[in-house]
Amino acid sequence: MIHLYTDSSPNGFKASIALEELALPYQLHHVRIADGAHRQPDFLALNPHGRIPVIRDEDSGITLFESAAILLYLAEKTGRLLPQHPAGRWEAIKWLQFHASSVGPIMGQRVHFELFANPGNAAAIARYRELTEQAWAVLDRHLADGRPYLAGADYSIADIAHFGWMHIARIVDFDFSGHVHLSAWHARVAQRPAVRRGVVLPEPATGA
C-alpha cells in the first residue's frame, strides 16, 4: 500500500494523476496547507521542508518527497509511464527535469507575484510573465513536429509533471492559447480519465 500525503496543488496533482494512471492501491491523506498541517511535526517527519506531495510505500519502506522523484519512483516500480528503450527513456527524463528545474519554479513565482504578493511588484510580475512565455514557447516548438507527447509517441511522467502546472495555469487564467501545439497537448492530456480523476484529489483546485 502506498500512502499519499497531498493537497490540491499543481505539484500534488502530479502524484495523484500518476497513481490513478497506474491503478496502484493507495491511501489518500489530505494535508491541509491552509490550516498549517504541512508544518506539524508528524508531516515534517516525512518531509522536513514541509512541502507536498509525499509518498510512503509500505511494501518497500521508502518515503519520498519532491514530485519528480515520486514520478520516477512510481514509473520504476511499475515499469510504466517511462519508455523502456534508452532514447525514449532519457527523452522523458530530460523533459521531466526541464519541468522540475525551469517550468515549475518559474510558474510558481509568477503565481506568487501576480496573485498573492502584497504589495505588488510590477517588475517581478513582468519578469515572470516573460520567463513563463519563454518556457511555454520551448514546449510549443518541441510539440510542433506532430509528436503527441513530450517524449514522442509515449505518454509519460514528463507529461504528467508539466500538466500539473498547466492545469493550474488554466484555472488562474494564465493564457497560453497562443501556443497552439502546447494547447493541443494540454487538451489531449486533460481528456485522459486518470487525469480527470487525479486533478480533483483530494479536492478540486479553486486557485493557485
Explain what this protein looks like in three dimensions.
With 208 residues, the protein is α+β, with helices and mostly antiparallel strands. The protein has two domains: 2-80, Glutaredoxin (3-Layer(aba) Sandwich); 86-192, Glutathione S-transferase Yfyf (Class Pi), Chain A, domain 2. Helices cover 55% and strands 9% of the residues. The protein contains eight helices and four strands; from the N terminus they run βαβαββαααααα. It has helices at 10-22, 41-44, 67-78, 86-116, 122-143, 157-171, 180-190, 193-198; strands at residues 2-6, 26-30, 54-57, 62-65. It has a four-stranded mixed sheet, covered by helices on one side. β3 (54-57) and β4 form a beta hairpin. α1 runs parallel beside α3 (67-78), α4 (86-116) runs parallel beside α6 and α5 (122-143) packs across α7. The longest helix is centred in the middle third of the chain and has 31 residues, at 86-116. The protein is globular and about 45 Å long.
